[in-house]
Structures are given as C-alpha cells and as structure tokens.
Amino acid sequence: MILVTGGTGYIGSHSVIELHNEGYDVLIVDNFVNSSPSVLKHLKTITGVDFNFLQVDLCDYEQLKDATKNYSIEGVIHFAAFKSVGESVDLPLKYYNNNIQSLTNVLKLCEEREISNIVFSSSCTVYGNPESIPVTESTPIGKAESPYGKTKVFSEEILKDFHKSSSKTICNLRYFNPIGAHESGLLGDYPDGKPNNLLPFVTQVAAGLREKLSVFGDDYNTKDGSCIRDYIHVVDLAKAHVNAIDYNKRNRKLYSVFNIGTGVGVSVFELLSTFEKVNKTPVKFEISKRRSGDVGAIYADCQNAAKKLNWKAKLNLEDMLSSAWNFQKKN
Ligand code: UFG
C-alpha cells in the first residue's frame, strides 16, 4: 500500500488514480486545508473505489502515527504542502512550519515503520533564475526567491541528509508547471479565491468569472517578451509518480532527482492564443508590470527521466488547455 499525503489535492488526486490504475492500493492522508472532501467522491466515481482515507494534520506526529498504525505501508508519496508563492512572502513562518514539519514527521514515520520507498514533490522553483536553459538536474539549486521555494530547497537538503543516515530509497521529483485536468472534468486545479497561477486565472476569465487577465510583463528577453514556462499535463505528472515508486523498487537505497516537464518552453502569449484556438473562446487580457520574483524563462531537460524513470510526457499543450477548460465549464 502506498501512503499518499495530500492525496485530495490537485496533483495528489490525479496520482491516486494512476497508482490505482497500475495496481497499487492507496492510503490517502489529507486535512482538506487546500482541498475538499468531495474529491474522495469524485475519485470513487472515476475508479469505482472507496479509497482508504485518514483526515490527519501531518504536523501532529502522534496523530499521524496513531492513524496509520493498522496499515501495511510499502511506500510514501509526500505531496502535502502549502504552495502559494505570494502568500509565503507575507506569511513565511506558516510555510516554514508546515512544509518542513510535515516532511520531518513523514520521514520519522518512515524510520519507525521501516518504510523505505519515498517519493517527494519538489519544484523547478529550486533553480531560481537559471543561468542557462534548459535546466538539468545538475543545474545549481538554492536560488529560490520565495519562502515557499526555499521550503523546497531545504526539504531537498533534509531528504539528502536523511538518505545518508538511513539508506532509504528516495526519489525527488522537480515539477515544472502542472496544468490541465482529468478527462472526466471531475478533478482539476481548484484554487480557493483569486487564482495565483496562470491557467486557473485564464479559465475563470474565459468563463466570465473575472474581467481580464493581467499578463505580467511583455518586456522579457524572450521570443515575444512574455515569460516562458514548461507546462506539463497533470495526468502525465501523476504517471511520473508511479514510475518513481517502481524506480525506487529497482534501485534500493538510491537517492535520485528528476526534472518532470515536457522540455518545451511556452510563452504566456503562446499559451493564450492556443487556449483561444483550441477552445474557441476569447480570453480578455491586458499587459501589466512584471510580477516580482518571476523568472523570465525556464524549461526542463527531461532526458534523465526518459532514460532512467522510463517516463516521458505524452499529452500536448492542446490537451492541457482543452481539459482545463472542460473542468472549468463543469465546475
Ligand atoms: N502569469 C501571468 N498572469 C497571471 C498569472 C501568471 O501573466 O495572472 C504568468 C507568470 O508571470 C508566469 C506564468 O504566467 O510567467 C506562470 O505563472 P504561474 O504563477 O502559473 O507559475 P510560476 O511559473 O510562477 O510557478 C509557480 C511556482 C512553482 C509552482 C508553479 C505551479 O513558483 O513552484 O507555480 O504551481 F510549481
């Protein structure tokens, strides 16, 4: 059985489905701080399975230990974390406390329960503003600007130290920009309040829920002046976690790091025009000033994941944008 922390969240819920599809039993832990109990219902509609679920605050070790004591756990995928860059600047202690304490508690559980297969959700944010692109896993990290980004850098350091002392098998996945939704339209990115990320904002403007999108800067040194990112379909990203669990099984006691993206850089303007074309829906926008902390351009070199994890993104930008729009319309 695989313990999935944050299993009702955006990436976690899609990963639960992929784990199930590949024959894994799943135990979901979440405290619904950034998700909803209705996700469990949707998971059942999609898979026909009532997944084991524990409502646990990962910052409370005794609660975690007690709740999980009757389950036989072979591996852990640790998704649960706060993830808003802007909020982390205003409330750094909230981020350091939650993201670091929940990680150390999950690792303590792995130590006590002899769980040796660990997969961690990191982010391309650890590369900060890279000197050259595409970034490989050996591009220097540690230049993350936001407290959120720093929690990912510190978490990676904690994992490396824990690996040295424990010989656990740890696979650290650095995600690029996950977007898109499950084909059912039941699961997707459902931000609370005003979206910070680009795609939820775009779909809300297209749906008439918001007046217009602000494009943060058109004066970057990129092909059209807007920022470039490596957008990856959340379903492809979810599948990478199953490959990571399997990779850990084949590579006992290894500590590994993989970029998980498509390897393709897409500008904000390209994303907008593709959205309008694919969904035949206009998106009103204005150019506004740069957002502080934004990196001009970043995308992944994913050869390592292709070679070793045997994983490659299969879905393209059109798939991402049509599924995101389908999800928005249904919700
Ligand atoms: N953008 C806009 N207008 C918006 C929102 C975003 O123009 O209203 C632009 C940004 O400037 C950026 C691009 O769209 O160029 C993507 O921005 P996001 O906020 O969606 O994502 P980021 O690249 O900033 O990445 C952040 C975190 C990552 C995390 C990722 C996805 O830094 O760690 O969100 O959650 F993985």
Structure description:
There is one protein chain. The protein has a domain at about 1-180 and about 230-260: NAD(P)-binding Rossmann-like Domain (Rossmann fold, 3-Layer(aba) Sandwich). The chain has 11 helices and 13 strands. The protein has helices at about 10-20, 40-45, 60-70, 85-90, 90-115, 145-165, 200-205, 235-250, 270-280, 305-310, 315-330; strands at about 1-5, 25-30, 50-55, 75-80, 115-125, 170-175, 175-180, 215, 230, 230-235, 255-260, 265, 285-290. The strands form 4 sheets. It has a 7-stranded parallel β-sheet with strand order 3-2-1-4-5-6-11, sandwiched between helices. A two-stranded parallel sheet has the order 7-10. The longest helix has 22 residues, at about 90-115. It binds uridine-5'-diphosphate-4-deoxy-4-fluoro-alpha-D-galactose. Uridine-5'-diphosphate-4-deoxy-4-fluoro-alpha-D-galactose binds next to helix 7 and strand 8. The site of uridine-5'-diphosphate-4-deoxy-4-fluoro-alpha-D-galactose has 19 residues, from helix 7 and strand 8.
Overall pLDDT, averaged? 97
> What would CATH call the architecture of the domain at 2-180 and 232-260?
3-Layer(aba) Sandwich
List unreliable stretches of 5+ residues: none
The total beta strand count reads: 13
Assign the CATH class of the domain at 2-180 and 232-260: Alpha Beta
**Shape, per Cα inertia axes:** globular
Helix percentage:
40-55%
Largest sheet: 7 strands, parallel
- Class by helix and strand content? alpha/beta
**CATH topology-level fold name of the domain at 2-180 and 232-260:** Rossmann fold
- Number of discrete helical segments: 11
Our Rg estimate from Cα atoms comes to 19 Å
**Largest beta sheet: strand ordering:** 3-2-1-4-5-6-11
Order of helices and strands: EHEHEHEHHEHEEHEEEHEEHEHH
Quaternary assembly: single chain
Question: Roughly how many Å apart are the termini?
Answer: 32 Å
Ligands (ions, cofactors included): uridine-5'-diphosphate-4-deoxy-4-fluoro-alpha-D-galactose
Fourth-level CATH superfamily of the domain at 2-180 and 232-260? NAD(P)-binding Rossmann-like Domain
Strand content: 15-25%
